[in-house]
Specification:
2 helices; mainly alpha; 67 residues
Length: 67
Amino acid sequence: MSGNRTISIWFFIGALLLIYGVLILLSGFFEAPRTQVVMAEYHAPIWWGCLLLIIGAGYTIKFFPRR
């Protein structure tokens, strides 16, 4: 053992945001609206999924535990 190594909490937060982004993005692609929703043509789940993917990837890459 060379030393006590810790992993930043921001790495795990980034991983969670990345996972949530994928799930929300996929739900946005495959959802079938049953009722008429105001401003449904803007596809909010797709935009939020992309935003969470970008933020999650940024945190995951920036705080990735290195050797």
